[in-house]
Amino acid sequence: MLGEGILKGLGETAKNFVGSFVSKDRLTTVQYPEERIAPIENTRDFPFLVYDGPDDADGYDKLAGLRCVACQICEKECPPKCIYIVKSTDKKPDFVGKPQIYPARFDIDISVCMSCQICVEVCPFEAIKMDTEFELSTTDRFGGLLFDRDHLSRSNQHYHKIHPTEATEVDARLAEEKIKADAKAKAAAAAAAAKAASPVAAPPAVKPAPVKEPGA
Amino acid sequence: MSATAFKTYPPPVMEVSEEGDELLEVAMGPHHPSTHGVFRMDVALDGERVVRLKPVFGYLHRNHEKIAEKASYLAAMPYTDRLDYFCSLTNNWAYALAVEKLAGLEVPERAEYIRVITAELTRIQNHASAIGFLMQEMGASGTPLMYAFREREKILDLFEELTGSRMMCNYMRFGGCRVELPSGWLEKVKTVVEGLPSFIDETEALLTGNEILMARSQGVGILKPDLAVNAGVTGVMLRSTGVNYDIRKVDHYGVYDRFKFRVPLGDHGDIYDRYMLRVLEMRESVEILKQALKDVPGGPIMDPKSKIRGFRPKPGEAYGRIEAPKGELGFYLISDGSGNPYRYRVRPPSLINLTILEDMCLGRNVADVVLIFGSVDIVLGEVDR
User: Fold this and answer.
1) DSSP code per residue over B205-263
2) Which pLDDT score, from 0 to 100, does residue A126 have?
3) Contacts of residue B143 in chain A, CB cutoff 8 Å?
């Protein structure tokens, strides 16, 4: 019969129309911003720099705990080239106590950033991670979207809050490294002490093997 | 050359056809609602009939290939998401496959299964939306497209949970996948896949027997098999003409040879066949997903030989291709041993399937042009690159 297919289709739409009032999983409208859907853990949008230190503490020097050592790998690998780094001229101790240079400037132009996460993957120091903050609209198109080092620095607690599983793994990895570095430092100190204590003329200093990059 | 050498466009040309009628040239696009983006068709009309049709594209050109040649191999991966932005995971796979061939990397079994699962989910959501857009162009404003998008939303949520992003997934890496599956993800996929057959049934009940759809699409936009083969048309477009060519069956890339699935073939090569084929391919994809989800093996997801920083494949060339939802998507790479490809070339199915647009449209009405164009299923990001 002509029109049978159309009637069948209309029946389908009627079923959906009625079903949308009955079935719970069909009521999907969320009244943003009063209501929000639960965040998905792996969500990413723009990068931030991780520092070890208290969260949201006024006056805390975020730079002291900053993990970034300004190696500029992310700057080189960034596909849209939105990262700008200036190396410092002096050094500060990193999380294992080794003096390292730090970024004197670290800018990310998030109007250029395409949230691809390549910087996070290539970073050997777990220093840059992806944030989930998305309400970033501003009236200042250029300055307001150019994030500097202070703006980008977020604490490790913040990282734990937004990506708990990933952050726990990263912490475990860093702790392992620290133990290794501590053991090495202790061994080096013991060797130095033994050398100083020994009456024999000191042998020529052996250059320590370079520290292997983690995760390379 | 004088300073005023800019090309000026003449007013629409009125020509006299052989029958003595006047031809009207109409520019459909670049912002016509039926053109899926910035695409223009210069159509010459004799009354309502199409006499000539010239596709004009390139408005969305972003220099993808040259950017990829200047950046490292890894840095090109997020740009592949932006080719066919509906199917970023299959784009990732095609590029990863080409680089893996180039560098001789072995993909672990678990990663292969994850790739198959994500690719088939991508195929389902692409075909569902393609049908939705086709119906939109047919005048069914909203309903089929909304049903398709409701289903697509569930799949995109799965993608976000796995990769961190709904559309720009950037998930596959050379020699495996980027991150391990989140806990409980496979169960969620199983739930979504269980709901898919009822969605496909719903789409079929809504559309397949619909008299208006049949009247507008049967016998319209017929593509002949020899023309399709000669023009290099692939994917649903080629199979709708009856040519049995599916790269999943031809190349057996990944672990597709472990799964039982059929390749639906058309008979007439018209719009209705393409619609029907998309529905049937979704059903076959559900079958593949069911088989793949049954036994996802454990183990690593990355080849230990692969490395993120300082990736330099040995000199050589490679062509990696997969059956993307829109057709054969291939990446051709030449390496000179440095950190970036010497040549990087994309074989985009959307562009090549679009080249036979005029042949399908000649002699049809303007209203049919919109439908024929919609049935090709293109994404302008891939056409223009």
Assistant:
1) HHHTT-HHHHHHHTTSS---HHHHHHTT--THHHHTTT----HHHHT--TTGGGS----
2) 84
3) 13
Q: Does B157 contact chain A (CB < 8 Å)?
A: yes
Q: What are phi and psi of B127, to 5 degrees?
A: -65, -40
d(CA B382, CA B326): 10
Beta bridge partners of A129: A48
Query: Count of CB contacts below 8 A, A vs B?
Result: 89
On chain A, the residues whose CB falls within 8 A of the CB of B75 are: 77-79, 118
**What is the topology classification, in CATH, of domain A47-168?**
Alpha-Beta Plaits (3.30.70)
Mutate to test the interface with A, among B66, B170, B178 (most CBs of A within 10 A): B170
The DSSP result for B147-197, as a single string, is: HHHHHHHHHHHHHHHHHS-SS----EETTEESSPPPTTHHHHHHHHHHHHH
Residues whose CB falls within 8 Å of the CB of residue A215, separated by 6 or more in sequence, listed in order: A124, A173, B308
The CA-atom distances, in angstroms, between B105 and each of A39, B93, B337 are 36, 14, 15
A-contacting residues of B 287-306, CB under 8 Å?
A: none
**Average pLDDT over every residue of B319-336:** 91
| Helix B185-207 with A4-22: angle, nearest 10 deg | 140
**Dihedral sign (CA A184, A190, A193, A198):** negative
- CB contact B207 to A (< 8 Å): yes
Q: Rounded to an integer, what distance in angstroms lies between the CA atom of residue B69 and that of residue B42?
A: 34
- What are the residue ranges spanned by the domains of chain A? 47-168
Domains of chain B: 14-56 (no CATH), 64-384 (1.10.645.10)
Q: What is the pLDDT of residue B3?
A: 46
Residues counted in chain A: 216
Backbone angles phi, psi at B7, to 5 degrees: -75, 130
Which chain B residues touch A124 with a CB distance below 8 Å?
309
Q: Could you give the CA distance from residue B89 to residue A112 in angstroms, rounded to a whole number?
A: 23
Query: From CA A193, how far away is CA A202, in angstroms rounded?
Result: 11
Q: What is the DSSP string of B38-107?
A: S-EEEEEEETTEEEEEEEE--TT---HHHHHHHS-TGGGHHHHHTTSTT-HHHHHHHHHHHHHHHHT---
DSSP state letters, A105-125: EEEEETTT-----HHHHH-TT
Query: Mean pLDDT across chain B, nearest whole number?
Result: 86
Q: Which residues of A touch B205 (CB under 8 A)?
A: 8-9, 11-12
pTM, two decimal places: 0.84
| pLDDT given at position A117 | 87
